[in-house]
Amino acid sequence: MKNSISIKDISKQAGVSIATVSRIINKNGRYSEETEKRVMDIIKANNYVPNMVAKGLRTQKMKNVGIIVPDITNEFFMKLVYEIEKNLFKEGYETFLCNTDEDEEQERKRVHMMAMQNVCSLIYVSGGVSDLQDAIRDLPTVFIDRVPDEALGNYCTVESDNIQGGYLATKELLDCGCHNILLMTSRKKISGYVERFEGYVKALLREGLEAADIHVVYLEQLNYDAAYKEMVRMLDEGSFSYDGIFATSDWLAIGCYKALTERGYRIPQDVKLVGYDDISVTAFNGVPITTIHQQVDEMGARVVEQLLSIMRQEKVEQDVIKVPVYLVPRESTRGKTE
Amino acid sequence: MKNSISIKDISKQAGVSIATVSRIINKNGRYSEETEKRVMDIIKANNYVPNMVAKGLRTQKMKNVGIIVPDITNEFFMKLVYEIEKNLFKEGYETFLCNTDEDEEQERKRVHMMAMQNVCSLIYVSGGVSDLQDAIRDLPTVFIDRVPDEALGNYCTVESDNIQGGYLATKELLDCGCHNILLMTSRKKISGYVERFEGYVKALLREGLEAADIHVVYLEQLNYDAAYKEMVRMLDEGSFSYDGIFATSDWLAIGCYKALTERGYRIPQDVKLVGYDDISVTAFNGVPITTIHQQVDEMGARVVEQLLSIMRQEKVEQDVIKVPVYLVPRESTRGKTE
DNA sequence: GTGAAAGCGCTAACAG
DNA sequence: CTGTTAGCGCTTTCAC
User: Which of A185, A284, B51, B256 could form a disulfide with A248 if both were Cys (CB 3.0 to 4.6 A apart)?
Assistant: First the structure.
């Protein structure tokens, strides 16, 4: 790689052995202050940068972690990655970013590549992690919005308090007088989404509603297009008769909004709508959309903190870290449905 | 790293030398079909994955490239990264993602880290690349939206036809009858932005306007907050007297929109507005915003294609690849200003 | 406090 | 067609 200078060159110039230079670089002690200074000066003068690849080969550990994200064009995920990258970089780690497009095959391939690159740990954002146990085993891993089914090696989960989130979202709709609330969520059993569902049910039941009042529509993909199409389908076949929708992510809410308004429904007068994540488009949307705010900065910080602690082999006290959420009320739930 | 099996283990099991295994893995020829089959079977059976770090140390080349982006939470950049990652991954490259927050210090640090990680090339999105010549030298680099001032080693630029973009945006405003058009852009001399400015001037002059009709406001940072604050400042001190604004990026346009509407200005009746990039928030915004569409998929594909060609030492015929843009007319320029 | 030497997993001459 | 060997740049015993 480039005409870069190595530890050997430094040692030669300094008139010491490479072992000594290595010790000095890593501050491992067992060298005199005098040699230290001499060597450090030469290092600076030559603008030496350590070769992490060689170091990685020797130590069997690269200082880089892989981040697997279902959709890197989604602002919510990237705000999370932003925080993670920032905190990880501070600790000297580089991050590989992998987009899976919510596709298990892609995911498998990419995790495989990560393994080849000897990443020292993995961060998994609400993904499938289907049959990856083998590849992941022994690799410190933090999951976001997803508690793996089987116990893996060293892992931990960080997520929002999704039950509370689902509860708050549904409660908001109920408080607006909605009686027929549709939940739109993912077909996949991602724990974060399952919990939002749980919160929805909890709010319904508390309000004295019954099992018959639970209405759910499942989506194959968690994105705008899928939500829009499903909504259009329901509207066109006349199977839509709700006065409130809780969409488990903001892009789903936007998809619903688009389909509804295109067909002449007014929001919030005819249908009230709540999203989840608090990405900026909900604030700027034609009718600003009420949503559940996830504290991405807090989440990102906790993810890195947990990851480091697992890597240091420290005992991780909690397997699941919960971060609080709060409701952001906007136009889409303004007014009272009677 | 993990209990992974090595080429040595494979060779032992197959009863051949490690050199032969290496040749087979890399399809370098000079082995019989028979041994190939035997070795491949063992590789599969043991679920062997090559150690890229060792390979990288030996060959002095890691198959991973660094991507430097000013703001990873911006959908435009990430759509670009999405395409780049996809295409690069197909070719067996992994990507490091670095966020600079438009901060030169951050940028320096991160490029430095990339060098330590022995990335085989760099992709630079509209960044500063101030005094990085040293670090970058000899590293194949593709710039997006930025033509470096000084000639570096092996580089190339991919960008939208920004002059045309600036022209189309301004032309749209002129066609709506605007006479007093403000350009909002970056203080930094990023070539992509300088060219949008050029297009703006070109449209103005063609329409018979003069130097006195050129009005520009420069921003220190290229984001929503900066645009919003600057707009508020102008509005509050009464120095705003325009009937049209061309904001050189969508988030700037959204910032202007917010400030203007908060103060009672109507868009498009009082002020017409055009953005740049075509990120989704412009389509969903209260008043959908006219913008210039950049073909990110095309750009991403060209970036990877150029990068690979530079790495293969092939002659790069053009130093600057231009990708066409087009106008997406929306509400914010509807109607005629008389 | 310092140095010699082994070796991480792999590739690439070179010899056969 | 196949094997032997010498490192890539670095860390880490183990002597001195």
Answer: A185
Cβ contacts of A56 within 8 Å, gap of 6 or more: A62, A63, A118, B53
Closest by Cα among B76, B91, B82, B150 to B121: B91
Query: Consecutive sets of 10 residues in chain B, 338 residues long: mean pLDDT of each?
Result: 78 93 92 93 91 92 92 96 96 93 88 88 79 67 83 81 98 95 94 95 93 94 96 95 97 98 96 98 97 97 93 74 97 86
Interatomic CA distance for residues A49 and B89, integer angstroms: 28
**Nearest in space to A244 (alpha carbons), one of A280, A213, A218:** A213
Strand D–CB A19 distance below 7 A: yes
Query: Are both B53-160+296-323 and B162-294+327-334 of the same fold?
Result: yes
* DSSP-based three-state secondary structure for A328: strand
Q: How many CA atoms lie within 13 A of A84 on its CB side?
A: 36
Which of the residues B118, B122, B254, B279 would you substitute to probe the A interface, choosing the one with the greatest number of A C-beta atoms within 10 Å? B118
Asked if A231 contacts A255 with a C-beta cutoff of 8 angstroms, the reply is: yes
**Residue B208 pLDDT:** 87
Strand C interface, protein residues by Cβ within 7 Å: A 15-20, 23, 30-32, 34-35, 54, 57-58, 60; B 4, 6-8, 18-19, 22, 25-26, 28, 50-51, 54-55, 57-59
Q: In this structure, are residues A121 and A312 in contact, taking their beta carbons and an 8 Å threshold?
A: no
Q: In CATH, which superfamily holds the domain spanning A53-160+296-323?
A: Response regulator (3.40.50.2300)
Q: B57 and A52: CB-CB below 8 Å?
A: no
B162-294+327-334 has which CATH code? 3.40.50.2300
The gap between the terminal CA atoms of chain A, to the nearest Å, is 70
Q: Is the pLDDT of residue A102 over 90?
A: no
pLDDT given for residue A315 in this prediction = 64
Q: Say how far apart CA A29 and CA B129 lie, in whole Å.
A: 37
pTM over 0.85, yes/no: yes
Provide the residue ranges of all domains of chain B, joining segments of one domain with +.
Answer: 7-46, 53-160+296-323, 162-294+327-334
Q: Answer whether the bond into residue A148 is a cis peptide, omega within 30°.
A: no
Nearest CB among A2, A99, A120 relative to B85 is that of A99
Backbone Cα Rg of chain A: 25
A260-306 pLDDT tens trace: 999 999 999 999 999 999 999 999 999 999 999 999 999 999 999 99
- A1 pLDDT band (50/70/90 cuts)? very low
Chain segment B105-115, per-residue pLDDT in tens: 888 889 888 88
Token reading at B193: 């932005």
